[in-house]
Design goal:
Shape: globular
Distance between the termini: 62 Å
CATH class of the largest domain: Alpha Beta
Largest sheet: 7 strands, mixed
Helix content: 40-55%
Number of domains: 2
Number of helices: 16
CATH topology of the largest domain: Cytochrome Bc1 Complex, Chain A, domain 1
CATH architecture of the largest domain: 2-Layer Sandwich
Structural class: alpha+beta
């Protein structure tokens, strides 16, 4: 087991890689009374096509989410019932990149850990149970159709992307949900729920030695399948599928706006930065533009051009997607202001230094938040293959000259905009 210092503080996490390649991160904290454990599988809604032993396998959209649902099946006591006995919260979720099963509580840590590891590493179902679950998921899919924020996100994704599977819904379409079979679920479980494609993160109040023993006792004996799984790299074109769209919904009162910028990675990689540094400079630029202390954001608020605003950066195989979301009573004017601002964007050196201080403060505060620690470890595993333990050093070394180079390499040629208006 490896002891890892966090940002050169008197704080440590511990890492071990089991013989079957399953990776485990422990972050014990004696000052905490609660704990959180997450078991992740690198299998999400975008893993629709893959190669197994050089054979192309294509599955139905939404199958990763369906499989997450089916793992809550039980002929005796369900996971919800089990964890309720000790007052422990349990849940699961599926993203485009991974599936997670997690629990949080302050009682019976070792028993809860044993149950999680045995539960997720064993899967059985029947045709009858699969058909029953279809009705539940189809109802969930119908509910999502009335969720404006969900529709905003899914539509701008579908309009921005041509081939990449980030354009698909995590839950899938109704036709795909209906077509999923027991055999397909079993195939995907066996292909992806394997030790070398899983990771475990434990944070909070627990004994490291006892936790490690349970992890090794239960997970170490599990073999990997002999088959080799390979991700399919999707070559997404630079152009967006649809440059602009206006939709109407009946259950909103204030218009919603989305604006997505699609940037080929090759243009950004010309800066010759390590991936994490490039990611940080990109996020720095977007934070300065749209963050809580942004001058442009303040301008939009003072001129009643936005009610709410958020932003994100998503990485796909070949591109970065920079997304801007807002509610606005003046959606067309907002989009025009946004486009003009980005095309004339300039950043002052003091803005960089200000955000650096904010980020360093956030890194310090994160150590008191179990969920924040788990989320940053997950992001690092998926983005960089390991936990990055020196983020404050990276932030301190960010400089204005490099920021300007990254800023100049941004290309706003390929964009998509979306406005959702009330029906009236």
């Amino acid at each position: 087991m490896k002891k890892i210092s966090i940002n050169n503080f008197d704080e440590y996490c511990y890492y071990e890689k089991l013989p079957n390649d399953l990776e485990v991160y422990y972050k014990p904290n004696d000052t905490k009374k609660n704990f959180t454990v997450l078991l992740g599988i690198k299998y999400g809604s975008t893993n629709i096509e893959y190669k197994k032993d050089n054979n192309l396998i294509k599955t139905h959209e939404g199958i990763a989410h369906f499989l997450e649902h089916k793992l809550f099946d039980s002929d005796t006591i369900t996971p919800f019932d089990y964890y309720a006995k000790t007052g422990t919260d349990v849940n699961a979720y599926t993203t485009s990149e991974y599936t997670a099963f997690h629990f949080s509580g302050n009682n019976a840590f070792l028993d809860n850990l044993k149950y999680l590891l045995n539960w997720v590493t064993n899967f059985k179902t029947t045709n009858e149970k699969v058909e029953k679950e279809k009705g539940i998921i189809l109802e969930e899919e119908r509910m999502y159709q009335d969720n404006p924020d969900r529709i905003l996100y899914e539509t701008i994704r579908a309009n921005t992307l041509n081939k990449d599977y980030h354009k698909t819904k995590v839950i899938g379409t109704s036709d795909n949900i209906k077509a999923i079979t027991k055999e397909e679920l079993e195939t995907c479980y066996n292909d992806f729920y394997r030790p070398d494609n899983m990771f475990l993160v434990l944070v909070g109040s627990f004994d490291l030695k006892s936790a490690s023993k349970i992890v090794n006792d239960i997970l170490k004996p599990i073999p990997n399948p002999k088959s080799k799984i390979k991700k399919i790299i999707i070559q997404e074109p630079d152009n967006v599928k649809l440059t602009n769209e206006i939709k109407h919904m009946k259950n909103i009162t204030v218009p919603k706006v989305a604006y997505s910028i699609k940037i080929n990675k090759k243009k950004l990689e010309q800066n010759k930065l390590p991936k994490i540094e490039l990611d940080y400079y990109l996020m720095m630029i977007i934070s300065i533009c749209f963050g809580a202390a942004s001058d442009f954001r303040e301008y939009l608020l003072l001129n009643n051009l936005i009610n709410t605003v958020s932003y994100q950066i998503t990485e796909i195989d070949t591109h970065y997607l920079i997304d801007f979301f807002a509610t606005s009573t003046k959606p067309e004017q907002l989009l025009q202001e946004l486009i003009t601002y980005l095309n004339n964007l300039k950043i002052a050196k003091q803005d960089l230094e200000r955000i650096k201080k904010v980020w360093i403060s956030q890194e310090v505060k994160m150590l008191d938040n179990n969920d924040a620690i788990i989320n940053t470890i997950i992001d690092d595993i998926l983005d960089y293959g390991k936990y990055i333990n020196n983020k404050i050093e990276i932030i301190k070394n960010m400089n204005y000259e490099t920021l300007e180079k990254v800023l100049k390499s941004l290309d706003y040629t390929n964009t998509s905009s979306l406005i959702i208006l009330p029906n009236n």
